[in-house]
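Mods, move this if it's the wrong board.
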Amino acid sequence: TRYIVEHGREAIEWLIEQGVPFTRDETAELGFHLTREGGHAVRRIAHAADATGKAIHDVLLDEVKRHPNITLREKWMAIDLITNRHLKRSAQEAHDHGPDIGRCHGVYALDIAHGRIETLQAAAVVLASGGVGKVYRYTSNPDTSTGDGIAMAWRAGCRVANMEFIQFHPTCLYHPQERSFLITEALRGEGGHLKLPDGTRFMAAHDERMELAPRDVVARAITVVMQRTHQANVFLDLAHLDAAEVRRRFPGMAEICQRFGLDLARDRIPVRPGAHYMIGGVTVDANGRTTVPGLFAAVMGNPAFGEPVRQIDER
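Not the wrong board. Structure tokens:
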């Protein structure tokens, strides 16, 4: 936690240098508009309108495409990690180099367009495959978040940890045509109210911070009232706020809600908790190294930090 907090600012500054268009506010001390989310006592979140993740993704993807040393293989799917159990090695090789147990040598991947499995050798492999959100009916995750990366690491002999812990986001859109659209927490940060179907606010009975309580508190409160009232959802209401400002501040959210026949600024938005972040996963150290030499895992969100792992053989 200390490492992430102490290095957060430089990470944001690096993203700014890459060209991420965070929303500016020339009247603010740092020159950027900051918002707040659950559990925050002050505004502390840099954002790009209401589509920060997409803004970061688009800028970094463009950087990847321009990089001379990166080959981007789109519509390919990793199938398995190549380890010693896949290799046929001679007795002489084993004698010269040792058993090299568990080392990762690359990946097998499916070229979807051509329907064939390809072998990609690598001195090092980095897993960045997301979580397991699609195990659940309601989730903010894309359809590809099915835990395949964690399964590949497990088969390769990696240590995994805390797999039983899933963070649920309090407000996924509840709509028959959409089960994975996230209603940003910043809407509550800007003053949105959670209500029952009869218009009653209910968070005061669960936490004094009300809608700005941490995610686990709000998600649990919504689940409790849904069970108690036999309702499939609750509602997020912004009708008491300035409609023009809501639409200006959350243009992407307003557009998508409109697609489903909802006015973000005036209608009550049906929401319910959905699986969001994987708390556990592949165990890594602070540099992303797993317990299998040659294999790394991207540290995002909530890494499952374990004991320091052995140094990777430079060979």
